[in-house]
User: Fold these one by one.
Assistant:
Number 1:
Amino acid sequence: MIKDIRVRPIENSCGKKTVRIKLVTEKGDFSACAAAGTSEGSHEAKAIKIDSAIRYFPRYKPKFVGQSEKQIDHIIEEVGLDKLGVHISIALSIAAIRAVSNNDVYKFLNPKAKKLPLPLGNVVGGGSHKGYLTEQEFLVFPKKAKTMQEAIETNQKIWETVGKILKSKKMVDGNNFEGAWMCKLDDIKTLDLLKEVADQYGAGIGMDIAASEYFKNGIYYYKNPERRLSSDKQLDFVLGLIEAYNLEYVEDPFHEDDFQNFSRLTKKAKTLIVGDDLFVTQEERLKQGIKKGAGNGIIIKPDQAGTISRTLKTVKLADKAKYKTIVSHRSGETKDSFISDLAVGIGSPLIKCGIFGRERKSKHDRLKEIWKNIEYPKLNSI
Ligand code: 2PG
Ligand code: MG
C-alpha cells in the first residue's frame, strides 16, 4: 500500500529540470526519475512545466495514498495524464512497477528472460542534439559480441577510435547531449569513417535521421545548402545510403506524419526501418503504421507513452504485427536505468542507450548486472 509520495526537481543530462519520485510503501521505498527528449515528436504524451507539475501534485496526491501500487496507472488515467504532466506520470508509473516487482522489473515482465538486447550507441551526433551535422545520430551495434561486457566495450572502442581519428584531423568539437562526437566532417565522410572503424570491430552501423527536425513545407533542408530535398529525393538519398554503407538500422528517415514514404522505403529497402517520432510509442499511431506497412520497427520510449501500461500495450501490438521493438533512452537522461529492465523484459533485439557519459553508463551497468543474474544468458540479434 502507498503511504506517501515525494516529488523533487532534479537536472537531466541536458541541464533541464525533471522530477525524481519516491514512492513510500509498506514494503519499502521505490524511486524513479523521468527522462525527456530534445527532438520530441509532436504526438508524444504532453509535458507540463516542472515547477507547475510539482506545485499542482499535492491536489492529486490524496487519490494515490492508501491505494495499492498496482493501481497507480489506473489512477493516473482517472486523474488525467495531462493534469499530472508526463514527467510525474511516467516516474510514478516506473516507481510503481518497481514496487510491484520488488525492483526486478525484467523478471516480472518475463520470468523466463534469457536474451539481452544488443546495445545500439551513437558515436557521432548532430541535429537538435548539437553538432555540425544535419542527421541526429550515427550509430553502431556489436554484432559479433558474445557477452554483454564485450558488447558494451566494443561500442566504447569504436567511439574512442573514431574520436582519436577526428582529433588527429582537428575535426571534432567535443561531445553533445548524448556523449556523441560533434564532428566537423560532412555526413558522407562521417559514414565513411564510421563504417571503416565499425568493420574493424565486426559491428553493424545505422542512423537516426530524425528528419522531422529539418523538414519544412515539403522540403528537407540539410545544412549543406546544395542539398534541399523533396520527399521523393529524400527517399532516393536514404536508399542510396542504405546500399552504399549497408545501414542495418534506419530511424525516422521522413517527417513524423509521412506514413506513406515510410511505407515506400520499407518496401524497397531490405533493412530495419524504425519509427520514433512517427509512432511516439502510441498504440493508435502504430495501428495506422501497420495498416500502411510503414516501417518494420518501433522505438519504445516509456515517457512518450506516459505510463508503463500504455507502453506495454504498444509493445504487445508491435509483437503481434512482427515489428521489432527498440527500447530507447532520451537525450535528456538521468541515472535511472529502468529502460535496461524494460528491454530485457520485452525481449528487444536492440537497446538504444548511448556510449559515453554517466547517464548512459547506468544503463550499461544494469545490463551487465542482469547478464550476471540470468542463468545461461545470450545476446539477441536483429
Ligand atoms: C531520439 C532520441 C534519443 P530525443 O530521437 O531517438 O536518441 O532523442 O530524446 O531528443 O528525442
Ligand atoms: Mg529518434
Note: The mean pLDDT is 97.
Number 2:
Amino acid sequence: MSNNEIEMSRSNFNVDHIAHAVPNIEDAISQYKRVFGAKASNIKIIEKQDIKIAIVSFANLKIELMEPLSEKSPIASYLQKNPKGGLHHYCLSVDDVNQSYEDQKEKKINIISEPTKGYHGRNLYFIHPSEVCGALIEVEEHEKE
Ligand code: CO
C-alpha cells in the first residue's frame, strides 16, 4: 500500500492510550522516568475498579499505569498470570461511544459491558479479546476540549 492508500483506508477510531498493568506503581513510574525521561501524573485511586492509576505522557501517546489494590480488582487476576506486569489493553476513541456500541452490537461483536462512565467521566465499553486476536480493547469517547 502507498502512503496515500493507507491514508484513505484509515479507521475512524483514534488511539487514546495503552494500559500497562504493574505490580507496584511507584516502581513503574521510576522505571519510565529512568528509561525514557517520562513524567507521570499524580497517583489516583479509582475505587470502582479497586486500582491505583497514573498517566505517563509521551508526545503522541498516554500510558495508563494500573496497580490493583486488592485481590478483588479486575487487574489482580491479570497480574497473577503476568507477575512482572504487562500490556493489559489499548484504548481507541470515537466521536459517539453509544453509536459505536450500537454499531458493534449490530455486527454481533462480543462486547464485555454496556457503555459506562470511566474515571475521567467519559463513556466507554470493552470489546472481548476473542474478537481481535487476543487483545482487550477499550473504546471511549474522544476527550472534548
Ligand atoms: Co484504559
Note: The CA atoms of residues 122 and 145 lie 12 Å apart.
Number 3:
Amino acid sequence: MRAVDVIIKKRGGEPLTDAEISFFIEGFNRGEIPDYQAAAFAMAVFFKGMEPAETVSLTQAIVRSGHQLDLRDIAPVVADKHSTGGVGDKTTMVVAPLVAATGLPVGKMSGRGLGYFGGTVDKLETIPGFRAALSEEEFRQALAKVGLVVAGQSQDLAPADGKLYALRDVTGTVESLPLIASSIMSKKIAAGTNCIVLDVKYGKGAFMKNLEDATALAHAMVEIGHGVGRKVRAVLSSMEQPLGLAVGNSLEVKEAVETLQGRGPGDLVELALILGSQLLEMSGRSLNLTDARRKLEETLKSGAAFEKFKAFIAQQGGDISYLDDLSRFPLAAHREEFRSNRAGYIKSMDAETIGIAAYTLGAGRKVKTDAIDPAVGLILRKKVGDKVEVGDSLLEIHAQSQSQADSIKESLWQAYTFSDTPVQAPPLVDTII
Ligand code: URA
C-alpha cells in the first residue's frame, strides 16, 4: 500500500477501508508518512468527507497510536463530560463534582484553552497549588480515592491526534466534521471512560456557529462512541449568549463554587442538571431522568457536591482555603461598571464579542505558550430578556488598568442589541441525541 494511493482514493470521494486508514495513521504516527502527505489527506477528507464507518476506523486508528487507559479495575463505569467549548463555560466544575457526589466516578482529561475559550484546566489552575499534570498512576489513584479527577490531556494518549491537529491548524482543515469528531472522540476513548456526555454548543460564541453543523457533529460523535461500544449522548446547548454571569478564569471558578453552594445562576444550574441527569441515567444509577434530576438536586442542596469539589481540589494539591473564602482570589486592579446608554430589553448579546473582549484583557491565549491572567474578565449584570434603564450596569469589567478597560468598550457596545418590547431568552438546550 502507498500513502499517495490512499490520498488519491479519498480525493476521488471513495470510502477508505479500515486497513487503508490504519495504514495511513500508523505510518504518519511513526514518522514514515511525511507531514505533507498527511496534510493532503486532511484536505481530501475536508472536501470529500467520510462515511460513519470510516470515521469510526479513523478514531480507532488514532486511539491505537498511543497508550490506552483501562479503568475497569477501579470502577465498572467511569463517567466523563466533554464540552466543545463556549464563553463562560464552567459547567465541568459543577457537573463533575455533582455527579461524583452521587457515587458515580468521574475521570476527565481536559485541554487547555486556545483563543477566547479558557480551558477547564486553565480555570482550575487559578486555585493555588492545583496540579493538572498527573501521571497515569496519579490519575488512577485520584479516581480510586476521591471518585473525581480532572487532569490535563496526556501526551501519551492518542498522540496521532496532536500531530494531525497541528497540521490541520496551519492548513485550513480544522473545520472538517469527521476530523473534529474523530479528534475529540479518540481522546475520550483512549482515556478509558465508558459513559460520556457531550455538551455540543452552537451559536455565535461556539466552535459550531449554527445548530445544523452542531447537530451533525453531535451525531457523528455519538455514532463513533456507539461504534466502539461506549455509552454516549450529546446535548445541544445554546452559546448565543455566555453561560452564567462570569467570563474569565478565576471569576469562573468563583461562580462554579457559588453554584455548588446553591447560589448559582439559573442557566448554569439547569445545564449542569441536564448533563448530570444524562450521565446518571446512562450509567444505570438512576432509573429515569426524573429520578436522576431529583437525586442531583438533593446532592446539590445537601452540600455534598461542594464537599466533593473540595476533596478533588485537595487531592490535586489545591489550596481549599480559597474555596471556603472566595475573597482570597486576587482581584484585577481596575474594576468598573459598564453602563447602558439606553433603556429597553436586551434582545441579543453576542457571546463571541464578549469572549474576545475578555481575551483582550488577558483571559485567553493566542499561542499555547502564552500566559493567561487569572484575575481579568467580565461579570455580566444582565442577560438576554432583562429590562434595563439608562445608567444600569450591563456588566462589570475586571481589568488591570483603566486604559485596558477602555480598550474593550467600543467592541462591548457592538455586542448588545436592544428592543423596546419584551424579549424571550433563547432556549438553553435544543435537543439531546
Ligand atoms: N477540539 C478537538 O479536540 N479537536 C478538534 O479537531 C476540534 C476541537
Note: The first helix runs from residue 3 to 11.
Number 4:
Amino acid sequence: MKRYSPMVAIDVATKEEAATLFDQLTVEPRPILKIGMELYYHFGQEVVKEAQQRGFKIFLDLKLHDIPNTVKRAMYVLGQLGVDFTTIHAAGGSEMVAAGVQGLKEGAAAAGLPEPKLLAITQLTSIDETILHNEQHVDLSLVESVQNYARLAEQAGADGVVCSAQEVRAIRQVTSPDFLCVTPGIRPQNFAKGDQKRVVTPAQAHQLGSNAIVVGRPITQSGHPVEAYQAIEQEFLKAGNK
Ligand code: C5P
C-alpha cells in the first residue's frame, strides 16, 4: 500500500510563522505541507511558491464546492500551481467532482506539470448524526453517507478522500484498493486532544490503513517541530514492521 510522508497542517496567520515552520521542517524525508484556507486567503500563490522553492510538496486544502463550471475553472488555476494534492466537497455531486478533475487535468497539462491528486471531503467531522438527520435531512447513517460520498467521488474520478482513520475500513469496502484515504485527527500518545474528538495515534492510523496522516498542532506547537515530525513519521511509516 502506498504510504506518504506525514502531511503537516500549517495553520498559521502570518508569513513569519509560516517561514519559521518552513525553516524548521526542512529535513529529509520532507513532510508534505498542508496549506489551508487561512494561509492561502492571506497570501495566495506566493506562500505556495515559497514552500515549493524550499523543496516541499504541497497539499492545498481549499475544499471547492460550487457549480461544475465554476469549479472546473478554479481547478484549472490550481492545476497550474504544481501542488501535489487538493480538495473538493463530494456533496457538490458527481458532475461537479468530474468537472473539478477535468479542470485540474487541463490546468496541469497547460503548465506542463503533473496532475495534482484530488481528494474529496465526504462528511466533515464536525457533522454528527443529529445534524445529518435534522439539518441535511439525510436518512442514511453517518458511515453510510461517508461510504456513499466516497463511492461517488471515486466514480467521478477523484483519487481519494479525506476521512477519519476510523472510517477507512468502511470506505475500503466500497472503493478500489488504490483509492487514497488521508486521515487527520492524529494524536501521538500523551498529547492533548485539543478540539479533536475522536483521535488515533500514528501507529493506529497505519494499522487502520491510512495512506497518509494530516498532523497539525502536535508538530507545529510542540516546541521541537522537527523531533515531533520525525517521531510521528517513524511511527506512521514503520508501524507495520514492528
Ligand atoms: O492541529 P490538528 O492536528 O488537529 O490539525 C489537523 C488539520 O486537519 C487541521 O488543518 C484541520 O482543519 C484538518 N482537518 C481535520 N479534520 C477533518 C478535516 C481536516 O482536523 N475532518
Note: The chain has eleven helices and eight strands.
